[in-house]
Amino acid sequence: MTTSNRGWLRLSIPEEWDAVGEGIWTSPHGGHLTVSDVLRSETEITPEIAVEAHESWCEAHRMNSQQIRMEELPNRLCVLRSFGETQTDEFMMVAHFWLQTQLSLLVFRCPLERLSDDDLADVLNAILEAKPVEGNSKR
Q1: What's the whole-model pTM score?
Q2: Hey, which of 64, 99, 106, 118 would disulfide with 95, CB 3.0 to 4.6 Å?
Q3: Distance (Å, rounded) from C-alpha 72 to C-alpha 50?
Q4: Dihedral (CA of 17, 18, 21, 26) sign
Protein backbone atom coordinates (compact mmCIF):
# COMPACT_ATOMS: atom_id res chain seq x y z
CA MET A 1 0.00 0.00 0.00
CA THR A 2 1.11 3.51 -0.70
CA THR A 3 -0.35 6.86 0.32
CA SER A 4 -0.90 9.99 -1.71
CA ASN A 5 1.43 12.95 -1.27
CA ARG A 6 -0.72 14.63 1.42
CA GLY A 7 -1.18 11.27 3.09
CA TRP A 8 -4.98 10.96 3.04
CA LEU A 9 -5.52 8.31 0.31
CA ARG A 10 -4.22 4.72 0.32
CA LEU A 11 -3.69 2.80 -2.91
CA SER A 12 -2.53 -0.72 -3.69
CA ILE A 13 0.19 -0.48 -6.31
CA PRO A 14 1.59 -3.90 -7.33
CA GLU A 15 5.10 -4.70 -6.14
CA GLU A 16 6.29 -5.34 -9.69
CA TRP A 17 5.58 -1.72 -10.65
CA ASP A 18 8.70 0.43 -10.30
CA ALA A 19 8.48 3.60 -8.20
CA VAL A 20 10.26 6.30 -10.21
CA GLY A 21 9.40 9.27 -8.01
CA GLU A 22 6.92 10.41 -5.40
CA GLY A 23 3.52 9.25 -6.64
CA ILE A 24 4.91 7.95 -9.95
CA TRP A 25 5.21 4.33 -11.10
CA THR A 26 5.91 2.42 -14.31
CA SER A 27 4.47 -0.99 -15.05
CA PRO A 28 6.43 -3.96 -16.40
CA HIS A 29 4.66 -3.36 -19.75
CA GLY A 30 5.53 0.34 -20.08
CA GLY A 31 2.45 1.93 -18.52
CA HIS A 32 2.89 5.10 -16.48
CA LEU A 33 0.84 5.84 -13.33
CA THR A 34 0.77 9.07 -11.33
CA VAL A 35 -1.18 9.89 -8.20
CA SER A 36 -1.40 13.35 -6.69
CA ASP A 37 -3.55 15.24 -4.23
CA VAL A 38 -4.90 18.23 -6.10
CA LEU A 39 -7.20 19.99 -3.65
CA ARG A 40 -7.88 20.36 0.03
CA SER A 41 -10.94 22.54 0.27
CA GLU A 42 -12.35 24.64 3.10
CA THR A 43 -15.79 23.30 2.20
CA GLU A 44 -17.03 19.84 1.33
CA ILE A 45 -16.38 18.75 -2.24
CA THR A 46 -19.63 17.96 -4.03
CA PRO A 47 -20.10 15.52 -6.92
CA GLU A 48 -20.69 18.55 -9.17
CA ILE A 49 -17.29 20.02 -8.24
CA ALA A 50 -15.61 16.66 -8.89
CA VAL A 51 -17.34 16.27 -12.27
CA GLU A 52 -16.28 19.78 -13.28
CA ALA A 53 -12.67 19.10 -12.24
CA HIS A 54 -12.67 15.74 -14.05
CA GLU A 55 -14.15 17.06 -17.29
CA SER A 56 -11.84 20.08 -17.27
CA TRP A 57 -8.80 17.87 -16.75
CA CYS A 58 -9.81 15.50 -19.57
CA GLU A 59 -10.47 18.41 -21.93
CA ALA A 60 -7.18 20.13 -21.07
CA HIS A 61 -5.28 16.90 -21.76
CA ARG A 62 -7.23 16.24 -24.97
CA MET A 63 -8.57 12.90 -23.83
CA ASN A 64 -11.44 11.49 -25.85
CA SER A 65 -13.43 9.94 -22.96
CA GLN A 66 -15.26 6.76 -23.83
CA GLN A 67 -17.02 6.37 -20.51
CA ILE A 68 -17.46 8.34 -17.31
CA ARG A 69 -18.45 6.44 -14.20
CA MET A 70 -19.10 7.75 -10.70
CA GLU A 71 -19.43 5.53 -7.66
CA GLU A 72 -19.18 5.63 -3.90
CA LEU A 73 -17.05 2.84 -2.50
CA PRO A 74 -18.14 1.01 0.68
CA ASN A 75 -15.61 3.09 2.68
CA ARG A 76 -17.45 6.34 1.63
CA LEU A 77 -14.67 7.32 -0.79
CA CYS A 78 -16.16 8.67 -4.03
CA VAL A 79 -14.56 7.93 -7.39
CA LEU A 80 -15.17 9.46 -10.80
CA ARG A 81 -13.30 7.66 -13.56
CA SER A 82 -13.10 7.55 -17.31
CA PHE A 83 -10.89 6.15 -20.02
CA GLY A 84 -10.13 6.91 -23.62
CA GLU A 85 -7.50 7.77 -26.17
CA THR A 86 -5.47 10.92 -26.54
CA GLN A 87 -4.50 12.75 -29.72
CA THR A 88 -1.04 11.17 -29.38
CA ASP A 89 -2.47 7.61 -29.62
CA GLU A 90 -2.11 6.80 -25.96
CA PHE A 91 -4.62 4.98 -23.82
CA MET A 92 -5.49 6.94 -20.68
CA MET A 93 -7.50 6.10 -17.56
CA VAL A 94 -8.22 8.97 -15.19
CA ALA A 95 -9.82 8.85 -11.74
CA HIS A 96 -10.66 11.60 -9.30
CA PHE A 97 -11.11 10.49 -5.68
CA TRP A 98 -12.73 12.63 -3.04
CA LEU A 99 -13.94 12.46 0.52
CA GLN A 100 -15.31 15.51 2.24
CA THR A 101 -12.61 18.18 1.65
CA GLN A 102 -9.88 16.13 -0.09
CA LEU A 103 -9.56 15.56 -3.86
CA SER A 104 -6.92 13.39 -5.55
CA LEU A 105 -6.13 12.49 -9.14
CA LEU A 106 -4.89 9.18 -10.57
CA VAL A 107 -3.70 9.08 -14.19
CA PHE A 108 -2.63 5.94 -16.04
CA ARG A 109 -1.33 6.30 -19.57
CA CYS A 110 0.26 3.90 -21.99
CA PRO A 111 1.01 3.82 -25.72
CA LEU A 112 -1.81 1.85 -27.38
CA GLU A 113 0.62 -0.68 -28.85
CA ARG A 114 1.95 -1.52 -25.36
CA LEU A 115 -1.38 -1.62 -23.51
CA SER A 116 -1.65 -4.75 -21.39
CA ASP A 117 -4.63 -6.47 -19.81
CA ASP A 118 -2.47 -6.98 -16.70
CA ASP A 119 -1.82 -3.24 -16.42
CA LEU A 120 -5.52 -2.46 -16.81
CA ALA A 121 -6.41 -5.01 -14.13
CA ASP A 122 -3.78 -3.56 -11.77
CA VAL A 123 -5.01 0.02 -12.27
CA LEU A 124 -8.68 -0.92 -11.86
CA ASN A 125 -7.81 -2.84 -8.70
CA ALA A 126 -5.94 0.18 -7.32
CA ILE A 127 -8.96 2.39 -8.05
CA LEU A 128 -11.57 0.02 -6.61
CA GLU A 129 -9.49 -0.87 -3.54
CA ALA A 130 -8.54 2.75 -2.72
CA LYS A 131 -9.38 3.92 0.77
CA PRO A 132 -8.88 6.90 3.02
CA VAL A 133 -6.09 6.68 5.59
CA GLU A 134 -7.57 6.05 9.03
CA GLY A 135 -8.15 9.26 10.92
CA ASN A 136 -8.34 11.37 7.74
CA SER A 137 -11.89 10.41 6.78
CA LYS A 138 -13.34 12.68 9.46
CA ARG A 139 -11.86 15.91 8.06
Answers
A1: 0.87
A2: 106
A3: 13
A4: negative
